[in-house]
């Protein structure tokens, strides 16, 4: 029998308790969990906590009866997830059938089985107010045996259906009651998460506030739009405006430290919002807060922000764990029950009540719903302008493909984009491509050795002015790399991808390359089969949050060196891409020297597109090192200038130089000067010196241009008949030699 915990002053249990929910419906079970002090969240079958409520799920877990009714009183109710950190719980998810002897202390916790009574697999739950690093749980010999779940993590709870119900898996509490405290033996397995427990702090002095406001580091504009939500939360408050103002100033001070927006701007806008909140209900700001008290709230926010770890603040802003932006359940319910329409000045002109749907008409809320329904109060809302991750390159809330022909540096470009989004440094360190939304990146790699990928990643860090040694010391650096490959229709792969998304909550997911994950049974040439695989993958990545950007790397058709979605290998990418990045060679790369001349197009159905010439300088290839050496650099030319240069760039200028020099040298050897012999002789000379020869097709093009009297700008050579009618070439006019742009300096 479940022991009834003692209630706290708010009517909720002080000590969390696992109730006996055997035989209860999902709705009744969710209510029972909430009444016993646990925060619950609706989820689709599986393990992603944002699968129903979306991004920001940590703020949406609830104990509110009305919200539980809204989510679960449905003919097809979702599953139930228990939010561990918010419920003062830590869970150990054991993934082996027998508890190892060194983990025998797990038996002192409450146990939810996931594989039936014959197995020890399942969740072992303890109570703690601390937050620990979540992740793999390893035995002393290095073997993985499960997962630690703390802070912003969840466990799926009875009576939710298990994703592997077909093999007999189920969620069932074997022991219930008051949750026991975390034992000391468990702590050797845990690392305390910085920021898991609120730090001690004091309000800042007037001098400290002035210094904070004047600090250039607190006057950057990395994410200026983040301020709007805070300001609106204060302006919309119809009760508790002082508390809303205090909370907003605390968050604003922290985000100003992280460089999101100037703190002075935040203070001014939040003060005006507080005044508007009081005026909207016929009250006076001075009577409730006033200038002096507002100043104290500012000092309160600055003091708290300065006492916290900056990495912790940045991690919260990325939604990794713990957050100050915690609305009460009542506030979230109020937000669901009404819609505020604003004029251009931001003033509320009408509040529209939103009726709760009748349970018989909630198909759009069902866990397995296909359609998402929008009524007039929703579709008639103002549509926000396109929001970019990287301006002119990649917007938010999108999915698509990154493609190109062989040796077009798709991996290098993926890594350049990843580092830019993770750090906020302009893509290619170029002012044309500012990062407007810094975020966490998950980079899934299915091809290439780990060492080789890491070597490139280290060099890419250096290209952005980042020392990999510093990254190694920062476990919160917002870029995670995952190696592995399996067919995309493999349940194990999909479960692992869900787990990665759950743990890291990325803003950008890069998968490289598609063919490493292509299901063997799917016909790659069949649009409908392959298209469904592509669509299913992007939906898997984005089901927890529509803001997540999903890019899937693919290859061009063999020999295709043009832009355009139809040049991508096989079927399905064109029809299932909302955004696409493509590149082509302007002329053959000089791999040995590490020089690549590319034209790259960035496209999105939501914003159009742009085209640039982007030259990559990787440094010479060192066979002993197995990689290019030297600094990575870029030279970017806008599309307008690229069009001007198109005619010159089309000529194989380097090969024309080689052919011309050869002809001039071979004046006495009439036979060797013929076009038939030129190509093979030139290549033989390079090979004799252990140098990489020019490509055959480029040499053929060079000879054809030099020999064609009708070539624009020519003739470059004149011909005459030699012995046996052999053609003899003599240089007649120097061909156009484009100015070689010096390698640009880093910004």
SSE diagram, text form:
Blueprint: E1 17-18, H1 26-35, E2 40-43, H2 57-60, H3 65-72, E3 79-83, E4 89-94, E5 110-113, E6 122-127, E7 135-138, E8 144-149, E9 154-157, E10 172-173, E11 177-178, H4 206-214, H5 226-235, H6 241-257, H7 263-280, H8 285-288, H9 290-307, H10 310-317, H11 329-337, E12 338-342, E13 348-353, H12 376-379, E14 388-390, E15 394-395, E16 399-404, H13 410-423, E17 441-445, H14 450-463, H15 468-472, E18 479-483, H16 491-504, E19 508-512, H17 527-542, E20 549-555, E21 579-590, E22 595-604, E23 608-617, E24 621-622, E25 627-628, E26 633-637, H18 639-650, H19 653-665, H20 675-688, H21 696-707, E27 717-721, E28 727-731
Parallel strand pairs: 16-20, 16-21, 17-18, 17-19, 19-20
Antiparallel strand pairs: 1-11, 2-3, 3-9, 4-6, 4-8, 5-6, 5-10, 7-8, 12-13, 14-15, 21-22, 22-23, 23-26, 24-25, 27-28
Helix pairs in contact: 1-3, 4-9, 5-6, 5-7, 6-7, 6-9, 13-14, 19-21, 20-21
What this model shows, in words?
The protein is of the alpha+beta class and 747 residues long. The chain folds into 4 domains: 17-189, no CATH class; 206-307, no CATH class; 388-580, P-loop containing nucleotide triphosphate hydrolases (Rossmann fold, 3-Layer(aba) Sandwich), CATH 3.40.50.300; 651-731. The chain has 21 helices and 28 strands. The strands form 8 sheets. It has a 9-stranded mixed beta sheet with strand order 18-17-19-20-16-21-22-23-26, with helices on both faces. A 6-stranded antiparallel beta sheet has the order 7-8-4-6-5-10, with no helix packed on it. Strand 7 (135-138) and strand 8 form a beta hairpin. Helix 1 runs antiparallel to helix 3 (65-72), helix 4 (206-214) crosses helix 9 (290-307) and helix 20 (675-688) crosses helix 21. Residues 1-13, 192-200, 319-344, 349-367, 640-649 and 735-747 have low confidence and may be disordered.
């Amino acid at each position: 029998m479940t022991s009834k915990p003692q209630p706290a002053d708010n009517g909720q249990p002080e000590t969390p308790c696992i109730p006996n929910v055997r035989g209860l419906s999902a709705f009744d079970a969710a209510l029972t969990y909430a009444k016993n002090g646990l925060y619950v969240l609706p989820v689709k079958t599986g393990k992603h906590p944002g699968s129903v409520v979306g991004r920001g799920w940590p703020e949406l877990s609830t104990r509110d009866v009305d919200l539980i009714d809204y989510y679960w009183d449905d003919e097809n109710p979702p599953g139930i997830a228990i939010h561990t950190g918010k419920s003062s719980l830590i869970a150990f998810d054991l993934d082996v059938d027998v508890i190892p002897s060194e983990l025998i202390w797990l038996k002192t916790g409450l146990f939810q089985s996931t594989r039936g009574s014959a197995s020890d697999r399942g969740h072992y739950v303890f109570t703690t107010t601390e937050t620990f690093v979540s992740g793999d749980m390893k035995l002393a010999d290095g073997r993985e045996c499960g997962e630690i779940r703390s802070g912003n993590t969840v466990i799926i709870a009875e009576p939710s259906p298990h994703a592997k119900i077909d093999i007999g898996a189920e969620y069932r509490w074997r022991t219930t009651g008051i949750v026991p405290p975390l034992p000391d033996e468990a702590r050797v397995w845990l690392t305390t998460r910085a920021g898991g427990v609120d730090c001690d702090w004091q309000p800042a002095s007037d001098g400290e506030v002035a210094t904070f406001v004047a600090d250039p580091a607190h006057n950057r504009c990395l994410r200026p739009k983040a301020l709007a939500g805070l300001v609106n939360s204060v302006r919309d408050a119809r009760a508790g405006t002082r508390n809303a103002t205090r909370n907003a100033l605390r968050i604003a001070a922290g985000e100003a430290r992280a460089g999101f927006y100037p703190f002075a701007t935040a203070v001014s806008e939040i003060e005006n919002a507080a005044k508007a909140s009081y005026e909207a209900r016929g009250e006076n700001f001075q009577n409730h807060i006033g200038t002096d008290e507002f100043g104290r709230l500012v000092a309160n926010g600055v003091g708290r922000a300065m006492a916290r770890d900056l990495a912790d603040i940045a991690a919260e802003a990325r939604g990794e764990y713990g957050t100050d932006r915690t609305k009460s359940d009542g506030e979230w319910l109020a937000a669901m029950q009404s819609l505020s329409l604003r004029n251009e000045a931001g003033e509320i002109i009408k509040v529209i009540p939103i009726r709760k749907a009748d349970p018989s008409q909630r198909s759009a809320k069902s866990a397995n719903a296909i359609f998402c329904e929008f009524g007039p109060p929703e579709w008639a809302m103002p549509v926000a302008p396109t929001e970019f991750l990287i301006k002119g390159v990649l917007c938010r809330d999108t999915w698509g493909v990154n493609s190109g022909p062989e040796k077009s540096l798709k991996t290098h470009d993926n890594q350049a984009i990843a580092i830019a989004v993770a750090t906020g440094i302009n893509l290619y360190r170029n002012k044309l491509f500012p990062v407007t939304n810094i975020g966490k990146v998950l980079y899934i790699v299915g091809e290439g050795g780990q060492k080789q990928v890491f070597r490139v990643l280290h060099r890419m860090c250096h290209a952005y002015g980042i020392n990999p040694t510093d990254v190694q010391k920062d476990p919160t650096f917002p870029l995670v790399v995952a190696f592995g490959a399996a067919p995309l229709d493999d349940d194990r792969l999909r479960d692992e991808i869900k787990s990665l998304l759950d743990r890291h909550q990325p803003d950008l997911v890069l998968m490289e390359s598609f063919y490493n994950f292509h299901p063997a049974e799917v016909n790659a040439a069949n649009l409908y089969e392959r298209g469904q695989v592509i669509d299913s993958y992007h939906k898997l990545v984005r089901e927890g949050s529509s803001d997540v950007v999903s890019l899937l790397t693919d290859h061009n058709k063999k020999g295709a060196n043009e832009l355009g979605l139809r040049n991508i290998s096989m079927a399905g990418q064109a029809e299932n891409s909302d955004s696409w990045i493509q590149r082509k060679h302007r002329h053959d790369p000089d791999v040995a020297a590490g020089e690549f001349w590319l034209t790259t197009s960035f496209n999105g159905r939501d914003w159009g597109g742009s085209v640039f010439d982007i030259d990559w300088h990787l440094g010479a290839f060192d066979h002993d090192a197995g990689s290019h050496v030297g600094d990575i650099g870029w030279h970017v030319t806008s599309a307008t200038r690229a069009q001007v240069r198109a005619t010159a760039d089309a000529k194989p200028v380097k090969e024309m130089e080689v052919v011309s020099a050869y002809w001039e040298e071979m004046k006495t050897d009439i036979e060797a000067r013929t076009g038939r012999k030129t190509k093979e002789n030139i290549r033989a000379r390079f090979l004799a010196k252990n140098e990489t020869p020019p490509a055959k097709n480029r040499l053929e093009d060079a000879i054809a241009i030099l020999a064609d009297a009708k070539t624009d700008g020519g003739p470059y050579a004149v011909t005459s008949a030699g012995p046996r009618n052999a053609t003899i070439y003599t240089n007649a006019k120097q061909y156009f030699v484009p100015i070689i742009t010096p390698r640009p300096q880093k910004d």
